[in-house]
Design goal:
Length: about 120
């Protein structure tokens, strides 16, 4: 959905269905990959998003790391992000620095190794 960032929770089921279809096709055309994962813009979604995901064949949602624990949300597997490219504060998203994102990536990888 690059270049077409929308707050999914503010859209109707049909509008979300159309966007998910378009996103899936764009990824297929551009990268020659099929996707099953949705990272909703602004981490915003609702039940209509989950219903649209089911209809379009998405079965994994990745959201704000503090929003949900791993598990199921209305039959969709939830895998919270471990690294975020921006911070939300005072109603605004601010892009993080390269060094900050790199540090989060390294910390995330280290946490995964500890669990293994």
């Amino acid at each position: 959905m690059a270049g077409n960032t929308k707050d999914l929770a503010k859209l109707s089921f049909r509008e979300q269905l159309t966007l998910l279809f378009q996103a899936k096709n764009r990824i297929k055309e551009t990268l020659d990959l099929s996707t099953r994962t949705l990272v909703p813009p602004m981490f915003s979604f609702n039940e209509a998003t989950l219903d649209a995901m089911h209809e379009e064949g998405y079965d994994i949602i990745s959201t704000y790391k503090d929003l949900h624990e791993p598990g199921l949300i209305s039959g969709v597997r939830s895998l919270p992000a471990t690294v975020e490219l921006s911070d939300y504060s005072n109603g605004l998203w601010m892009v993080k620095s390269y060094d900050s994102v790199k540090a989060e990536i390294l910390m995330s990888v280290q946490e995964i190794w500890v669990r293994c």
